[in-house]
Design brief:
- The protein has 440 residues and is α+β, with helices and mostly antiparallel strands.
- It has helices spanning 5-12, 17-28, 32-58, 69-84, 86-105, 111-131, 168-177, 191-199, 211-224, 238-243, 248-257, 285-300, 302-315, 371-381, and strands spanning 157-162, 182-186, 204-209, 228-232, 260-270, 273-277, 280-284, 321-325, 328-339, 342-343, 351-352, 360-366, 386-387, 390-395, 397-411, 414-434.
- It folds into three domains: 5-134, no CATH class; 157-258, Probable inorganic polyphosphate/atp-NAD kinase, domain 1 (Rossmann fold, 3-Layer(aba) Sandwich), CATH 3.40.50.10330; 273-428, Tumour Suppressor Smad4 (Sandwich), CATH 2.60.200.
- The longest helix is centred in the first third of the chain and has 27 residues, at 32-58.
- It is globular, with a radius of gyration of 25 Å.
- The mean pLDDT is 82.
Amino acid sequence: MTPPVLPRLSRGANHGALWFAAAAALAATRTPRARRAATRGLASLGLASVTVGALGLKRRPVSPAFPSGHAASAAAFATGVALESPAWGTVVAPVAASVTLARVDGGRHVPSDVLAGAALGVGAAFAVRAMVPTRGQVAPPARPRADVPALPDGEGLVLVANTGAGSAERVRALRDALPRAEVVECEPADVPAELDKAATRARVLGVCGGDGTVNAAARVALRARLPLAVLPGGTLNHFAYDLGIEDVRDLARALRAGDAVRVDVGRYACGGKHGVFLNTCSVGVYPELVRERERWSPRIGGWPAGVLAALRVLRADRHPLETEVQGRAHPLWLLFAGNGTYHRMGLAPGRRRDLADGQLDVRVVHGGRRPAVRLVAAALAGPLTRSPVHAAVQVGRLQLDHVAPGTLLAYDGEVTEVEGRVILEKLPEALTVYRPIPTG
Protein backbone atom coordinates (compact mmCIF):
# COMPACT_ATOMS: atom_id res chain seq x y z
CA MET A 1 0.00 0.00 0.00
CA THR A 2 1.36 3.43 -0.95
CA PRO A 3 1.99 5.68 2.09
CA PRO A 4 -0.40 8.65 1.91
CA VAL A 5 2.45 11.16 2.13
CA LEU A 6 3.98 10.07 -1.19
CA PRO A 7 1.19 11.33 -3.45
CA ARG A 8 1.19 14.66 -1.61
CA LEU A 9 4.95 14.97 -2.09
CA SER A 10 4.57 14.12 -5.76
CA ARG A 11 1.90 16.78 -6.23
CA GLY A 12 3.95 19.30 -4.23
CA ALA A 13 6.87 18.77 -6.61
CA ASN A 14 4.80 19.84 -9.62
CA HIS A 15 6.54 22.70 -11.43
CA GLY A 16 9.35 22.55 -8.86
CA ALA A 17 7.19 24.13 -6.11
CA LEU A 18 8.49 21.77 -3.43
CA TRP A 19 12.12 22.55 -4.27
CA PHE A 20 11.57 26.29 -4.35
CA ALA A 21 10.03 26.01 -0.88
CA ALA A 22 12.98 23.92 0.30
CA ALA A 23 15.41 26.50 -1.10
CA ALA A 24 13.54 29.28 0.72
CA ALA A 25 13.76 27.30 3.97
CA LEU A 26 17.52 26.84 3.51
CA ALA A 27 18.02 30.52 2.75
CA ALA A 28 16.01 31.44 5.85
CA THR A 29 18.70 29.87 8.05
CA ARG A 30 20.86 32.89 7.11
CA THR A 31 24.08 30.87 6.99
CA PRO A 32 26.33 31.37 3.93
CA ARG A 33 26.72 27.65 3.33
CA ALA A 34 22.96 27.00 3.40
CA ARG A 35 22.26 29.94 1.09
CA ARG A 36 24.87 28.69 -1.39
CA ALA A 37 23.43 25.17 -1.15
CA ALA A 38 19.97 26.52 -1.96
CA THR A 39 21.29 28.51 -4.91
CA ARG A 40 23.25 25.57 -6.26
CA GLY A 41 20.26 23.27 -5.86
CA LEU A 42 18.02 25.62 -7.84
CA ALA A 43 20.65 26.14 -10.53
CA SER A 44 21.00 22.37 -10.92
CA LEU A 45 17.22 22.00 -11.05
CA GLY A 46 17.02 24.67 -13.74
CA LEU A 47 19.62 22.98 -15.92
CA ALA A 48 17.92 19.61 -15.50
CA SER A 49 14.53 21.06 -16.42
CA VAL A 50 15.89 22.70 -19.55
CA THR A 51 17.57 19.44 -20.58
CA VAL A 52 14.42 17.38 -20.01
CA GLY A 53 12.45 19.92 -22.03
CA ALA A 54 14.93 19.74 -24.89
CA LEU A 55 14.82 15.94 -24.89
CA GLY A 56 11.02 16.09 -24.90
CA LEU A 57 11.10 17.98 -28.18
CA LYS A 58 13.43 15.52 -29.92
CA ARG A 59 13.05 12.11 -28.34
CA ARG A 60 11.35 8.98 -29.60
CA PRO A 61 10.03 7.97 -26.19
CA VAL A 62 10.70 4.60 -24.60
CA SER A 63 7.59 5.25 -22.50
CA PRO A 64 5.04 8.10 -22.61
CA ALA A 65 7.10 10.16 -20.14
CA PHE A 66 10.77 9.30 -20.60
CA PRO A 67 12.78 10.58 -18.78
CA SER A 68 10.87 11.56 -15.64
CA GLY A 69 11.00 15.31 -15.15
CA HIS A 70 10.05 14.99 -11.47
CA ALA A 71 12.88 12.52 -10.85
CA ALA A 72 15.34 14.76 -12.72
CA SER A 73 14.34 17.83 -10.69
CA ALA A 74 14.45 15.95 -7.38
CA ALA A 75 17.87 14.42 -8.06
CA ALA A 76 19.28 17.67 -9.41
CA PHE A 77 18.19 19.73 -6.42
CA ALA A 78 19.29 17.18 -3.83
CA THR A 79 22.66 16.57 -5.49
CA GLY A 80 23.30 20.29 -5.93
CA VAL A 81 22.57 20.90 -2.25
CA ALA A 82 24.76 17.97 -1.17
CA LEU A 83 27.72 19.09 -3.29
CA GLU A 84 27.75 22.43 -1.47
CA SER A 85 26.70 21.19 1.98
CA PRO A 86 26.77 17.45 2.71
CA ALA A 87 24.92 18.04 5.99
CA TRP A 88 21.97 19.73 4.28
CA GLY A 89 22.19 17.13 1.54
CA THR A 90 21.36 14.38 4.05
CA VAL A 91 18.23 16.33 4.99
CA VAL A 92 17.04 16.88 1.43
CA ALA A 93 17.98 13.46 -0.01
CA PRO A 94 15.16 11.44 1.70
CA VAL A 95 12.57 13.93 0.42
CA ALA A 96 13.97 13.69 -3.12
CA ALA A 97 13.99 9.88 -2.92
CA SER A 98 10.37 9.90 -1.74
CA VAL A 99 9.29 12.08 -4.65
CA THR A 100 11.06 9.74 -7.07
CA LEU A 101 9.48 6.66 -5.49
CA ALA A 102 6.04 8.28 -5.63
CA ARG A 103 6.25 8.61 -9.42
CA VAL A 104 6.60 4.82 -9.76
CA ASP A 105 4.15 3.84 -7.01
CA GLY A 106 1.57 6.21 -8.44
CA GLY A 107 1.84 4.52 -11.82
CA ARG A 108 2.90 7.67 -13.62
CA HIS A 109 6.27 6.24 -14.68
CA VAL A 110 7.99 2.94 -15.18
CA PRO A 111 11.32 2.43 -13.37
CA SER A 112 13.40 3.20 -16.47
CA ASP A 113 11.80 6.67 -16.72
CA VAL A 114 12.71 7.43 -13.13
CA LEU A 115 16.24 6.03 -13.33
CA ALA A 116 16.98 8.02 -16.49
CA GLY A 117 15.56 11.20 -14.94
CA ALA A 118 17.55 10.76 -11.76
CA ALA A 119 20.76 10.17 -13.73
CA LEU A 120 20.09 13.28 -15.77
CA GLY A 121 19.48 15.32 -12.60
CA VAL A 122 22.72 14.15 -10.97
CA GLY A 123 24.58 14.96 -14.19
CA ALA A 124 23.08 18.45 -14.23
CA ALA A 125 24.29 19.12 -10.67
CA PHE A 126 27.83 18.06 -11.56
CA ALA A 127 27.72 20.18 -14.72
CA VAL A 128 26.79 23.22 -12.60
CA ARG A 129 29.69 22.44 -10.26
CA ALA A 130 32.06 22.34 -13.24
CA MET A 131 30.91 25.84 -14.23
CA VAL A 132 30.81 27.26 -10.68
CA PRO A 133 33.01 25.27 -8.27
CA THR A 134 32.01 24.79 -4.65
CA ARG A 135 34.02 26.49 -1.93
CA GLY A 136 35.35 23.08 -0.91
CA GLN A 137 37.01 22.73 -4.31
CA VAL A 138 39.00 25.94 -3.90
CA ALA A 139 39.89 25.72 -0.20
CA PRO A 140 43.40 27.09 0.44
CA PRO A 141 46.13 24.64 1.42
CA ALA A 142 46.59 24.10 5.15
CA ARG A 143 50.11 25.48 5.22
CA PRO A 144 52.36 26.78 6.56
CA ARG A 145 51.16 25.37 9.88
CA ALA A 146 51.57 27.50 13.00
CA ASP A 147 52.01 26.46 16.65
CA VAL A 148 49.14 28.01 18.60
CA PRO A 149 47.29 27.20 21.84
CA ALA A 150 44.21 24.97 21.72
CA LEU A 151 41.23 26.54 23.49
CA PRO A 152 38.72 23.72 24.10
CA ASP A 153 36.19 25.94 25.87
CA GLY A 154 37.40 29.31 24.58
CA GLU A 155 39.32 30.39 27.68
CA GLY A 156 42.04 32.85 26.61
CA LEU A 157 40.09 34.15 23.61
CA VAL A 158 39.05 37.81 23.75
CA LEU A 159 36.82 38.60 20.77
CA VAL A 160 35.76 42.11 19.79
CA ALA A 161 32.49 42.20 17.83
CA ASN A 162 31.45 45.15 15.71
CA THR A 163 27.73 45.63 16.43
CA GLY A 164 27.45 47.79 13.31
CA ALA A 165 28.06 44.67 11.20
CA GLY A 166 24.95 42.93 12.55
CA SER A 167 26.97 40.36 14.49
CA ALA A 168 24.56 39.67 17.38
CA GLU A 169 23.39 36.26 16.15
CA ARG A 170 26.92 35.01 15.55
CA VAL A 171 28.10 36.31 18.90
CA ARG A 172 25.34 34.32 20.64
CA ALA A 173 26.38 31.20 18.75
CA LEU A 174 30.02 31.76 19.70
CA ARG A 175 29.13 32.08 23.40
CA ASP A 176 27.23 28.79 23.21
CA ALA A 177 30.10 27.02 21.42
CA LEU A 178 32.94 28.50 23.53
CA PRO A 179 31.40 29.45 26.90
CA ARG A 180 34.62 30.69 28.52
CA ALA A 181 35.56 33.07 25.72
CA GLU A 182 35.33 36.77 26.52
CA VAL A 183 33.26 38.74 24.02
CA VAL A 184 33.28 42.54 23.83
CA GLU A 185 30.50 44.07 21.73
CA CYS A 186 31.01 47.67 20.66
CA GLU A 187 30.01 50.31 18.16
CA PRO A 188 32.17 50.73 15.01
CA ALA A 189 33.87 53.88 16.31
CA ASP A 190 35.04 52.04 19.44
CA VAL A 191 36.46 48.97 17.69
CA PRO A 192 40.14 50.14 17.46
CA ALA A 193 40.32 51.09 21.15
CA GLU A 194 38.62 47.87 22.27
CA LEU A 195 40.99 45.80 20.14
CA ASP A 196 43.99 47.49 21.76
CA LYS A 197 42.59 46.76 25.23
CA ALA A 198 41.72 43.18 24.33
CA ALA A 199 45.28 42.53 23.16
CA THR A 200 46.64 43.27 26.66
CA ARG A 201 44.75 40.35 28.27
CA ALA A 202 44.26 37.82 25.45
CA ARG A 203 46.11 34.68 24.52
CA VAL A 204 44.21 34.83 21.24
CA LEU A 205 42.74 38.01 19.75
CA GLY A 206 39.36 37.48 18.13
CA VAL A 207 37.27 39.70 15.89
CA CYS A 208 33.77 39.57 14.42
CA GLY A 209 32.94 42.00 11.65
CA GLY A 210 33.52 42.80 8.01
CA ASP A 211 36.80 43.14 6.15
CA GLY A 212 37.51 46.63 7.50
CA THR A 213 37.07 45.46 11.10
CA VAL A 214 39.24 42.40 10.44
CA ASN A 215 41.91 44.69 8.99
CA ALA A 216 41.95 46.72 12.21
CA ALA A 217 42.26 43.51 14.26
CA ALA A 218 45.12 42.27 12.07
CA ARG A 219 47.09 45.46 12.73
CA VAL A 220 46.70 44.98 16.48
CA ALA A 221 47.55 41.26 16.30
CA LEU A 222 50.71 42.04 14.35
CA ARG A 223 51.83 44.64 16.89
CA ALA A 224 51.05 42.40 19.87
CA ARG A 225 52.34 39.24 18.16
CA LEU A 226 49.11 37.42 18.91
CA PRO A 227 47.32 34.79 16.82
CA LEU A 228 44.08 36.05 15.30
CA ALA A 229 40.68 34.32 15.29
CA VAL A 230 38.30 35.69 12.64
CA LEU A 231 34.53 35.25 12.73
CA PRO A 232 32.94 36.72 9.57
CA GLY A 233 30.21 39.20 10.37
CA GLY A 234 30.11 41.75 7.56
CA THR A 235 28.73 41.93 4.04
CA LEU A 236 31.55 40.42 1.97
CA ASN A 237 34.00 38.73 4.40
CA HIS A 238 36.55 37.96 1.67
CA PHE A 239 39.44 37.16 4.02
CA ALA A 240 37.50 34.82 6.30
CA TYR A 241 35.89 32.97 3.40
CA ASP A 242 39.18 32.58 1.52
CA LEU A 243 40.65 31.31 4.77
CA GLY A 244 37.94 28.65 4.94
CA ILE A 245 35.94 30.10 7.86
CA GLU A 246 32.27 30.75 7.21
CA ASP A 247 30.58 30.45 10.58
CA VAL A 248 31.01 29.75 14.28
CA ARG A 249 31.34 26.00 13.73
CA ASP A 250 34.40 26.44 11.53
CA LEU A 251 36.11 28.83 13.95
CA ALA A 252 35.22 26.84 17.06
CA ARG A 253 36.60 23.66 15.50
CA ALA A 254 39.91 25.37 14.75
CA LEU A 255 40.17 26.92 18.22
CA ARG A 256 39.39 23.67 20.03
CA ALA A 257 41.96 21.76 17.98
CA GLY A 258 44.63 24.47 17.98
CA ASP A 259 44.71 24.54 14.17
CA ALA A 260 46.26 27.61 12.56
CA VAL A 261 48.35 28.75 9.61
CA ARG A 262 50.57 31.69 8.78
CA VAL A 263 49.38 34.01 6.01
CA ASP A 264 50.90 36.89 4.07
CA VAL A 265 49.98 40.50 4.78
CA GLY A 266 50.06 43.27 2.19
CA ARG A 267 51.52 46.65 3.15
CA TYR A 268 51.29 50.11 1.61
CA ALA A 269 53.59 53.03 2.45
CA CYS A 270 53.50 56.65 1.31
CA GLY A 271 55.85 59.07 3.02
CA GLY A 272 55.20 58.69 6.74
CA LYS A 273 51.84 57.00 6.18
CA HIS A 274 51.51 53.25 6.04
CA GLY A 275 48.99 50.50 6.58
CA VAL A 276 48.28 46.83 5.88
CA PHE A 277 45.76 44.97 3.75
CA LEU A 278 44.60 41.38 3.92
CA ASN A 279 42.58 41.40 0.69
CA THR A 280 43.17 44.19 -1.81
CA CYS A 281 44.65 47.62 -2.28
CA SER A 282 43.77 49.86 -5.23
CA VAL A 283 43.97 53.33 -6.76
CA GLY A 284 41.85 54.82 -9.54
CA VAL A 285 38.07 54.67 -9.82
CA TYR A 286 37.52 51.91 -7.25
CA PRO A 287 38.45 54.00 -4.19
CA GLU A 288 36.03 56.64 -5.43
CA LEU A 289 33.36 53.95 -5.68
CA VAL A 290 34.11 52.84 -2.10
CA ARG A 291 33.78 56.38 -0.77
CA GLU A 292 30.51 56.89 -2.65
CA ARG A 293 29.18 53.56 -1.42
CA GLU A 294 29.97 54.42 2.20
CA ARG A 295 28.16 57.71 1.75
CA TRP A 296 24.93 55.99 0.68
CA SER A 297 24.97 52.66 2.53
CA PRO A 298 23.64 54.02 5.87
CA ARG A 299 20.59 55.32 4.01
CA ILE A 300 19.75 52.54 1.53
CA GLY A 301 21.81 49.50 2.54
CA GLY A 302 25.08 47.99 1.34
CA TRP A 303 24.19 46.30 -1.97
CA PRO A 304 21.91 49.07 -3.33
CA ALA A 305 24.57 51.61 -2.31
CA GLY A 306 27.20 49.68 -4.26
CA VAL A 307 25.09 49.69 -7.42
CA LEU A 308 24.30 53.40 -7.06
CA ALA A 309 27.95 54.23 -6.39
CA ALA A 310 29.09 52.34 -9.51
CA LEU A 311 26.56 54.18 -11.66
CA ARG A 312 27.54 57.59 -10.28
CA VAL A 313 31.29 57.03 -10.52
CA LEU A 314 31.31 55.51 -14.00
CA ARG A 315 28.99 58.14 -15.46
CA ALA A 316 30.99 61.09 -14.10
CA ASP A 317 33.22 63.13 -16.41
CA ARG A 318 36.76 62.25 -15.30
CA HIS A 319 40.31 61.70 -16.48
CA PRO A 320 42.50 58.65 -15.88
CA LEU A 321 45.09 58.69 -13.12
CA GLU A 322 48.53 59.73 -14.37
CA THR A 323 51.35 57.92 -12.56
CA GLU A 324 54.52 55.90 -13.06
CA VAL A 325 54.31 52.17 -12.37
CA GLN A 326 57.68 50.50 -11.80
CA GLY A 327 59.34 53.50 -13.46
CA ARG A 328 57.12 53.63 -16.57
CA ALA A 329 54.44 56.26 -17.20
CA HIS A 330 50.93 54.80 -17.23
CA PRO A 331 47.60 56.58 -17.49
CA LEU A 332 45.18 54.20 -15.83
CA TRP A 333 41.61 53.89 -14.66
CA LEU A 334 42.36 51.29 -12.04
CA LEU A 335 45.30 49.58 -10.41
CA PHE A 336 44.34 46.65 -8.19
CA ALA A 337 46.80 44.71 -6.03
CA GLY A 338 45.57 41.55 -4.35
CA ASN A 339 47.24 40.05 -1.31
CA GLY A 340 47.79 36.70 -2.98
CA THR A 341 46.98 35.49 -6.48
CA TYR A 342 43.31 35.42 -7.47
CA HIS A 343 42.15 32.56 -9.68
CA ARG A 344 38.93 32.18 -11.62
CA MET A 345 37.42 28.71 -11.89
CA GLY A 346 34.58 28.35 -14.37
CA LEU A 347 32.10 31.20 -14.12
CA ALA A 348 32.83 31.87 -10.43
CA PRO A 349 34.39 35.15 -9.26
CA GLY A 350 38.09 35.11 -8.45
CA ARG A 351 39.22 33.33 -5.29
CA ARG A 352 42.62 32.92 -3.65
CA ARG A 353 43.88 29.37 -3.39
CA ASP A 354 46.98 30.23 -1.38
CA LEU A 355 47.16 32.97 1.26
CA ALA A 356 50.92 32.60 1.67
CA ASP A 357 52.20 32.62 -1.92
CA GLY A 358 54.40 35.73 -1.52
CA GLN A 359 52.75 37.50 -4.46
CA LEU A 360 50.86 40.71 -5.11
CA ASP A 361 48.31 40.02 -7.84
CA VAL A 362 48.47 43.29 -9.80
CA ARG A 363 45.76 44.11 -12.38
CA VAL A 364 45.85 47.37 -14.36
CA VAL A 365 43.06 48.84 -16.49
CA HIS A 366 44.75 51.20 -18.94
CA GLY A 367 43.59 54.80 -19.33
CA GLY A 368 41.58 55.90 -22.35
CA ARG A 369 38.10 56.93 -23.32
CA ARG A 370 34.98 55.27 -21.92
CA PRO A 371 36.18 53.97 -18.55
CA ALA A 372 33.03 51.90 -18.00
CA VAL A 373 33.61 49.88 -21.18
CA ARG A 374 37.26 49.29 -20.30
CA LEU A 375 36.48 48.22 -16.74
CA VAL A 376 33.81 45.77 -17.88
CA ALA A 377 36.14 44.36 -20.54
CA ALA A 378 38.87 43.90 -17.95
CA ALA A 379 36.46 42.14 -15.59
CA LEU A 380 35.41 39.75 -18.36
CA ALA A 381 39.05 39.10 -19.26
CA GLY A 382 39.53 37.68 -15.77
CA PRO A 383 42.84 35.84 -15.45
CA LEU A 384 44.12 36.78 -18.92
CA THR A 385 47.47 38.50 -18.47
CA ARG A 386 47.17 40.71 -21.55
CA SER A 387 44.37 42.40 -23.44
CA PRO A 388 44.05 45.76 -25.22
CA VAL A 389 42.65 47.36 -22.07
CA HIS A 390 44.05 45.23 -19.26
CA ALA A 391 47.28 43.76 -17.94
CA ALA A 392 48.03 41.42 -15.04
CA VAL A 393 51.26 40.44 -13.35
CA GLN A 394 52.34 38.87 -10.05
CA VAL A 395 55.14 40.63 -8.17
CA GLY A 396 56.42 40.84 -4.61
CA ARG A 397 56.76 44.64 -4.59
CA LEU A 398 55.26 47.51 -6.60
CA GLN A 399 56.28 51.17 -6.78
CA LEU A 400 54.10 54.06 -7.97
CA ASP A 401 55.67 57.48 -8.51
CA HIS A 402 54.34 60.98 -9.16
CA VAL A 403 50.94 60.16 -7.71
CA ALA A 404 48.90 63.38 -7.68
CA PRO A 405 48.00 64.94 -4.29
CA GLY A 406 44.58 63.90 -3.05
CA THR A 407 44.60 60.57 -4.91
CA LEU A 408 42.44 58.02 -3.11
CA LEU A 409 43.79 54.61 -2.12
CA ALA A 410 41.41 51.89 -0.95
CA TYR A 411 42.51 48.98 1.22
CA ASP A 412 40.11 46.32 2.55
CA GLY A 413 37.18 48.66 2.11
CA GLU A 414 38.82 51.63 3.85
CA VAL A 415 39.96 54.77 1.99
CA THR A 416 42.88 57.14 2.54
CA GLU A 417 44.65 59.85 0.50
CA VAL A 418 48.15 59.39 -0.94
CA GLU A 419 50.57 61.38 -3.08
CA GLY A 420 54.09 61.21 -4.46
CA ARG A 421 55.64 57.76 -4.09
CA VAL A 422 53.51 54.79 -3.01
CA ILE A 423 55.08 51.43 -2.22
CA LEU A 424 53.06 48.22 -2.15
CA GLU A 425 54.83 45.17 -0.75
CA LYS A 426 54.36 41.82 0.97
CA LEU A 427 55.04 40.80 4.55
CA PRO A 428 55.45 37.05 3.98
CA GLU A 429 53.76 34.75 6.52
CA ALA A 430 53.52 37.65 8.96
CA LEU A 431 50.13 36.88 10.53
CA THR A 432 49.02 33.74 12.37
CA VAL A 433 45.32 32.92 12.01
CA TYR A 434 43.14 30.06 13.19
CA ARG A 435 41.50 27.98 10.50
CA PRO A 436 40.13 24.44 10.40
CA ILE A 437 42.63 21.95 8.99
CA PRO A 438 41.07 19.09 6.96
CA THR A 439 41.93 15.63 8.26
CA GLY A 440 43.26 12.85 6.10
